[in-house]
Amino acid sequence: MPTRLAFQFLCVVVCLFGTTAASAAPPSFRNDVMPILSRAGCSLGTCHGNQHGKGGFKLSLRGQDPAADFITLTRSHASRRINQLNPAESLLLQKPLALVPHEGGRRLRENSTEYSILHDWIAAGMPADAPSAPTLVALHVEPSEITLYNNQRSVQLEATAEFSDGTRRRINELAVFESSSPEVTVTPGGELQFPESRTARQTSVTVRYLHQQSAVMAACVPTQPDFRFTAPEPANVLDEKVFARLRQLQINPAPLCSDAVFVRRLYLDVTGRLPTAEQARSFIQSAAADKRSRLIDELLDSPGYIDFQTLRWCDLLRVEDKTLDAKGVEVFSHWIRACVAEDRPLHEFAAAIVAGQGSTYSEPPANFHRALRTPEERAEAAAQVFLGVRLQCARCHNHPFDRWTQDDYYGWSAFFARIDYKILENRRRDTNDKHEFDGEQIVFQKPAGEMLNPATGKPAALRFLQDSGGLFAAASAATAPALAAAPEPQQDRLRQLAEWLRRPDNSRFAATQANRIWFQLFGQGIVDPIDDFRATNPPANPELLQALTQEFIRGGLKVKPLMRLILNSRTWQLASETSDSNRDDQLLFSHTTPRRLTAEQMLDAFSQVLETPVRFSGLPPGPLAVEISGVRTGGHRYSRPEAGDRFLALFGKPGRLLTCECERSAETTLAQTMELVGGEVLAGLLKQPGNLIDTTLNSPDSDSNFLDNLWWTALARSPSAGEQTAMLEYLQQASYRRQAIEDITWAVLNSHEFLLKQ
What we know:
40% helix; four-stranded mixed beta sheet; 28 helices; 17 strands; alpha+beta; globular; Immunoglobulin-like
């Protein structure tokens, strides 16, 4: 009897405790445990997400492979880190609590939600998710856009996960919150905190949960009871969007720039050259009310515009003679120049490049593929230049900061997998350099050839890099041409891709190119970097980017109409002088940011002011740096570099080895300073026979005329009364007249006003 009673009592206990345990479902490995490993930093590349793991324990990078991580934790040798009999003794908990030595330091607290979830999952026997378990379909963050006023400096963000079964769940304790500004912090629980400031601050907050990411734009506006918004009258929709955002943040834009600043800035931005003294005088002395818009039209139709745009595209498309050879450079750059001259729509231009096949001598666009020798290089270059996608990270793993997966990477690369080359001849001088080509090649597509996805070991299905919504909704899967999962062997993949790029409603392409044109004129993109469009790098002014893209599409995706619209805007014509209101603004275009002249602009400006040409290797005297087709920053490959070649290399001209605007450097160095102070180029031009100095010495004109002409040529204005007096006095007191003239000219050419585009 006692035995029977004991058995019955045991059954009651089991039923009671079993019912209680069953009533509380154990944590989900995919939806609860994996986010904690990511939030704690365990699955980052600097920790156990490293390619080789840490301390014998390896997780997938940023938790991109939950199935593999589950096996690692429960079935592999790493399972020794878990103690099911006493979960609290598990190394998986003790190390992040810093109860035992841990190289990563303390990552959890014992009374936290994260600790409880890990503990409960281990205590429940480390169950796997059922096949029918809900999966994440969307991440929502509220508020989606924030502007704080009246000395309010903090706000609580709420992150909500939406799952495949229709349920929603607050996941602030599981998500990762990151601010783009080091001065603006966000707590692990999602409270955004701005520092005390007298001016408006703006930041973006990235929220990550599992494979979904969302960005929130946030701004904090200090109390300014006496603020009164003042701005020039908007000239077009671009001004309306810029000024609306500035008004919201209580930032006053700068006034319009002077005519002298305008004419110099316009010539440099559109043609890459300085205006002549006569051109500058004529513009400034004109009383016409529409003289600015008329000069814009004139320069957009000038040969200088064609030269400058050709130079920009040659930089991006890697027009250099090591891989293309001299004739390839010539035919490709001439084709680009012809497209610029006719203002060929950029989607047609891009489509022709992507579909380029045939002889690299008779079919110029084929040179794009000649410079990129592997499917991966072609895929990454095309994505970055034409779609603003930096796809490189997805080659080895899902992109950590964007939506692109390995499947996307290899599906996109598959478009380029069948490209091959027939090398008719290669007259290279360095037989050990496999990257040097000198001779005609035929670019063609093989009838077969697949791109294998290393994650599956199977041929990758073709995929466009298309978005499901937002600014790029017009390029969504619903409007994109259908692709067969397994294309026919004879299918022309390049032409298929070209047709997709050619679609006028491909908003991702249109936004990327519109933003690139904006960058050319402002030195900063609305999305910046300009080839890194992603949810976690949102535009500084989304409404402005959307308006710019719509205007670009409305203009047939031609460069000139959009550039004309930007140049006529009050935003582009703002002065560079700042006020207390806009001094700290670096993102919203409240004033013009002075920029140093590019290498070509600076060298051509020296040549123009001193009235003497610069020598380049392999070329006769005469051409400007902006007119050179290829890359001669080290001189012609088999001839001694001239001073001009070395100058361009020193001041950041790209070698065209990357398909990226970032290859052009604007960094200042001590070597550049020494070159300007007493380097071979400027010193040589000042001493060159027949230059401005010689002309001045042999001219009957007065010293005042010399100074006036020098100032107008270099600075697009006349010297001020103080400058005129000081320079005349210096000339009159000089014992050696030539040296005095050289000194004054050197001083002007080294002034900030000359070296910077105001």
